[in-house]
Amino acid sequence: MEFWYTEEWTENVRFSIKVDQQLYSKKSDFQQVDIFESQELGKFLTLDGLMMVNEKDEFVYHDCIVHTPMCVNPNIKNVLIIGGGDGGTARELSRYSSIEKIDMVEIDELVVRASQEFLPITASKLEEDSRIHLYFEDGVAWVANAKDETYDLIIVDSTDPIGPGEGLFSTEFYQNCYRILSKDGILVNQNESPYFAHNAREMKRAHEKINRIFPIAKVYQAHIPTYPSGHWLFGFASKTFDPIKDAKVDEWNALGLKTKYYNTDIHVGSFMLPTFVKEMLEDAKSSK
Amino acid sequence: MEFWYTEEWTENVRFSIKVDQQLYSKKSDFQQVDIFESQELGKFLTLDGLMMVNEKDEFVYHDCIVHTPMCVNPNIKNVLIIGGGDGGTARELSRYSSIEKIDMVEIDELVVRASQEFLPITASKLEEDSRIHLYFEDGVAWVANAKDETYDLIIVDSTDPIGPGEGLFSTEFYQNCYRILSKDGILVNQNESPYFAHNAREMKRAHEKINRIFPIAKVYQAHIPTYPSGHWLFGFASKTFDPIKDAKVDEWNALGLKTKYYNTDIHVGSFMLPTFVKEMLEDAKSSK
């Protein structure tokens, strides 16, 4: 018998992983949650049939989404994670002793519970670190209700803009993020991919909206082989900091954090984009 | 009816592309040559069941393998391409009026003929540009027989080190490349991928050998979604030039070449590698 998990990257492209067994399968109020075990990727979590995290390359995504803003402002004290139910983003943040509080607002409790049971690699810090406050609430409502200038960093660790993640790609959401960020605040978001047409459309829409609201809005890239095309983007937006000029390279390196993907060279390199991506982002901006 | 091309990235990971039709299928003396037509990637060429080029993303590979060395030394006059039967590397080189001669040594004539018939996007310059001299010979023998200091640039545009490409990953081959390069000579090679174990092994072996022979040996990366993992590497080795410090950024930009992937920012960014890749390369070097 062979058992394969197959993801439709587009109608015409499929990515398949040979699976040893399905460890978990449940429909929450929001989405279908599955966890599989495989030879190649170890255990992996999917939501509505899309890869979220796996033991082999989760470090790439979590390194990029956390250490990039932390290197630009090592004085970040208060952080808001929207989504991030697998716990990997909270885990990387918890390595900074300088951070005082991490609010994590995940709409779907089932994702957190399943990750805590099967993916301690990402979820282990959620219980251990008392600075992490877990709220099973809607991120859109959370940012609408939060007070002005509450956070120094907001990380939008969302699914694609279909299903529960949709509101996290709206102008109103980004406007509230701006309002509740401190005067040096930074917003980082998973910003889809430039390769397949449907991802590229969402990438442009997200960047266009963020760019209208934040004075500084850049995009950086990473190699995440298990996401569609492996060419994945993150957004970096801020009120004051430029992600390259204001990177505190020496200060970050002095922390001595061991990382498997991120380093202060690739911090710079990740903002240097292929011409076709730059052109897509320029297009998005000019369609204001 | 559905018709799918499936590539085994590993025993446990498959990448599949929905195909409209198979345009060409022939076994040469060296390998199985197929060309397919698809919605997502346009036409694509495979050798022994491995993706070589497709109309959607061939520009990434050919931009990286050609413009990176050309930016470091815009005075390159004599070029040797080993492999590159689809013609894409020759096409990009032919855009430099400063280049005087391009010897292209491809072991398998069938690859060139099939590409000329079905992939004019890459192969069109092979007949048009009189500076391109096509030899259907073994690249290993070619470099063994060439005179000292014949070329300013050698591009190893090979398949994986299995089948006809195997000798192009040998120490003897790289030693001859060194010998036949001029005193400012540059060697660029496709250097596999760090992600899946079997690719990573070949990546380390190639780098270790090149690093023993050339005083300067670096690795740079690109996003090529249709190659296994999408995280692909190239080697840059030279007798005198550092790929970053000696890049002639203004000079290259003054040429006004329009490119879809390459630019002088990503030139720099592509040499900034994830920590796990840096560590693999260091391991390879210390196993001398």
Automatic annotation (TrEMBL), chains A, B:
EC number: 2.5.1.16
Binding residues annotated for S-methyl-5'-thioadenosine, in chain numbering: Q31, E106, D138, G139, P164
The encoding gene: speE
Residues of the active site: D157
Biological source species: Turicibacter bilis
UniProt record, GO biological process: spermidine biosynthetic process
Protein family: Belongs to the spermidine/spermine synthase family.
CDD domains given in the database record: AdoMet_MTases
Pathway the protein contributes to: Amine and polyamine biosynthesis; spermidine biosynthesis; spermidine from putrescine: step 1/1
GO cellular component: cytosol
NCBIfam families: PRK00811.1, speE
Residues annotated for spermidine binding in this entry: H62, D86, D157, S158, T159, D160
Residue stretches making up the PABS domain: 2-239
Classification via InterPro entries: PABS, PABS_CS, SAM-dependent_MTases_sf, Spermi_synthase, Spermidine_synt_N, Spermidine_synt_N_sf
Assembly mode: Homodimer or homotetramer.
Known role: Catalyzes the irreversible transfer of a propylamine group from the amino donor S-adenosylmethioninamine (decarboxy-AdoMet) to putrescine (1,4-diaminobutane) to yield spermidine.
Name this protein carries in UniProt: Polyamine aminopropyltransferase
